[in-house]
Amino acid sequence: MTVFGYARVSSKDQNLDTQIDQLKRYGVEKIVSEKITGVAKQKPKLEDLLGNLKKGDTLVVARMDRLGRSTMQLLELVEELNERNIHLVILSPNIDTRDEIWGKLFLTIMSAVAEMERSLIKEKQRNGIAIAKEKGKYKGRVKKYHSKHAGMKHALDLYHSQNYTVKEITEITSVSRSALYRALNEENEKRELTQGGI
């Protein structure tokens, strides 16, 4: 169980020192930093860090907006970390998902907001599908990748080869980061059950 820190600034002329100093004072063991805008869909070093995090690890950031500027980016990441049993600490405003009371409250609020966001997106999708059907342009729902899908198998093979970053894998296979992490979690759970049964 390792404590990782992530620091980010939006441009090359900005300084990372303040964030790094805060992370060191907290006691972070390993710090990853990069200079890239918060609205960027891909943050290479953050992607690599997320791919290396294991169950029980802790991710620490100075502020919430260091992980992403858009609400959806942040919500998806928080949910993903929670599903993978990875702790999140945000130094300002002092949020720690390991805390039984405040951590759970934070996750509950984030989940509620995420559910509302998803409902709004689904409503827009339904409206879009209805319009497409009226125009005769609806081709049906695109099937998502699952653990037994050939694309997912390829993504897992590339991940285990340790020759590709998560970003490169998603670009090569078109498997989403969250879908890949879910499949990796399933593998880990099966491995733990197998080892426990020996």
UniProtKB/TrEMBL annotation:
InterPro entries: Recombinase_CS, Resolv_N, Resolvase-like_N_sf, Resolvase_HTH_dom, SSR_resolvase
Domain of life: Bacteria
Domain spans labelled Resolvase/invertase-type recombinase catalytic: 2-136
Gene3D superfamilies the record matches: Resolvase, N-terminal catalytic domain
Recorded family membership: Belongs to the site-specific recombinase resolvase family.
Keywords: DNA integration, DNA recombination, DNA-binding
Residue positions of the active site: 10
Protein known as: Recombinase family protein
Pfam families, per the entry: HTH_7 (PF02796), Resolvase (PF00239)
Lineage: Bacteria, Bacillati, Bacillota, Bacilli, Bacillales
